[in-house]
Amino acid sequence: MQQLSRGERLPLAQQVPGGMLQVGLPAQGLDLDFACFALDAGGKLADERYMTFFNQPGTPCGAVTLAAVGGDRDGFRFDLGRLPAWVERVSIVASSEGAAMSQLRSGSLCLHGPGGAFARFAFEGRDFAQERAVMLGDVYRKDGQWRFMAAGQGFNGGLDALVRHFGGTVADTPPAAPARSAPGAGNAARINLEKRVEQSAPKLVSLVKSAGVSLAKAGLSEHRAKVCLVLDISGSMSALYRSGAVQAFAERILALGCRFDDDGEIDVFLFGKHVHKGAPMGLSNWSDYIERMIKRHPLEGDTRYGAAIEAVRRHYFPDGGGGARNTPHKSQVPVYVMFVTDGSTSDKPLTERQIRWASREPVFWQFMGIGKGRKSKSKALANFADSDFPFLEKLDELDGRLIDNADFFSVAAPDEHSDAALYDLLMTEYPQWVAQASRHGLIG
Asked: Facing residues of 77 across strands?
């Protein structure tokens, strides 16, 4: 039986040629409720009858039903060929009524075909923190064929929050009393920053609030991190800079930085043939920041990811000099890097080495490719299609790393997603990285 790791994908055509798939869901140590959401191309539950759970044990078409599978009490049976054409993905989730997923001893998602069990995705409590739900796996269409992806993404709010997340509705319940924050420097600093945003950059207020909502859903409301924006300045990016699309995207990342770090600034690197460290982008200079940076550093030929990654590493971790690192490096505050490009790189071997070395440092690399292909591992927003960025996909799943320190998605344009959707997308893998980095001693 094939053992799947988080993020791994598996074609189903050979194992379930008739589309008759069964999923067993054994779990120990925590009483879990399981559900399936049939989602459209926008990642939404377009028809609430296509949520399958204990109160609604089957879809109207009969394609998904609750069932005991392979000796496991909990599971689902799928007849994929009967799903309506609008269904692009079926997300399999687990939730707990009140306990945190960290209390789970062990669990697994087992895939069964006509020939028996053929793949298994295992998970356990130490993979999670205070989340009360987890997106276990997705059955999705690609190129007219069904595939499976192991997910393992924790979700903070339980089953009701997942229903709302996917666009469904739940019965109204009395709101919980708001928790009282203990007075402290962190809270005071955040209030002060919010006032500064309102005074210095009112245009960013709604962005900062939207980023805060996504961080709360990911369980990172109190999380602190430095934010770094790395921008491709190769010639092919010219139209995006001229149109203001890069400026608008940079503002969205600055808003994320305001939620992560109360200094109200993000670091910015530009790269093409060379790498340039710009002045920090902050509340005092945000409005025409990109235009001024491009005047100072005109667009260049070539694209070199590896050189840019090395420069970022050298900036934040000067003790390593941007070179090989064989032992973990610890820091109190991690770094979240937003890496934007529209093309491949000319230094692939160096890039791979850099990402492997950086896996021992408290830095997370979020890659975004701008191109025709669209690919996302977001469990709420996935719209799978051929990607223009096979090398970035490789970095996403690169071997030889201490922990998985990178994620990748691609867009047709920087403004393809709404603010809320973008911030959700940026938190697809980062919460899991924070948990892993803490366990390995990278974050103090």
From this structure: 22, 65
SS3 at position 140: strand
Residues in the chain: 444
Contact present, 111 and 46 (Cβ < 8 Å): no
Pairing of strands 335-341, 226-232: parallel
Residue 170's pLDDT is: 60
Calpha distance 27→107 (Å, rounded):
4
Pairwise CA distance, residues 375 & 381, whole Å: 10
Rounded Cα gap, residues 437 and 375, in angstroms: 26
Average pLDDT over residues 119-135: 85
For the segment 185-195, the average pLDDT, to the nearest whole number, is: 54
Strand partners, 22: 77, 112
- SS in 3 state form for 3-48? EECCCCEEECCCCCCCCEEEEECCEECCCCEEEEEEECCCCCCCCH
Measure Cα distances from 406 to 154, 181, 377 in Å: 17, 33, 12
Tokens for 376? 């996302």
Q: What is the pLDDT of residue 222?
A: 87
Mean pLDDT value across residues 420-428: 94
Cα-based distances in Å from 13 to 77, 136, 383: 16, 21, 20
List strand residue ranges (DSSP E) for 162-308, in order: 226-232, 265-271, 275-277, 281-282
Q: Do the beta carbons of residue 239 and residue 275 sit within 8 Å?
A: no
Tell me which H or E stretch contains 406: strand 406-411
Dist. CA 429–CA 154, nearest whole Å: 9
Other Cβ atoms closer than 10 A to 89: 23
Q: What's the pLDDT score for residue 369?
A: 95
On the question of pLDDT at 326 being above 60, the answer is: yes
State how far the Cα of 331 lies from the Cα of 310, in Å rounded to an integer. 18
Q: What angle do CA 436, 368, 13 make, to 5 degrees?
A: 80
Residue 129 has pLDDT above 90, yes or no: no
The beta strand positions in 124-185, using DSSP E, are 133-142, 145-155
Residues 372-381: tens digit of each pLDDT: 543 334 333 3
> What pLDDT does 179 receive?
35
Question: What pLDDT does 322 receive?
Answer: 87
**Residues 273/226, Cβ–Cβ less than 8 Å:** no
Coil/strand/helix, residue 382: coil
pLDDT at 169 exceeding the cut of 80: no
Classify residue 399 as exposed, middle or buried by CB count within 10 Å of its CB (0-12, 13-18, 19+). Answer: exposed
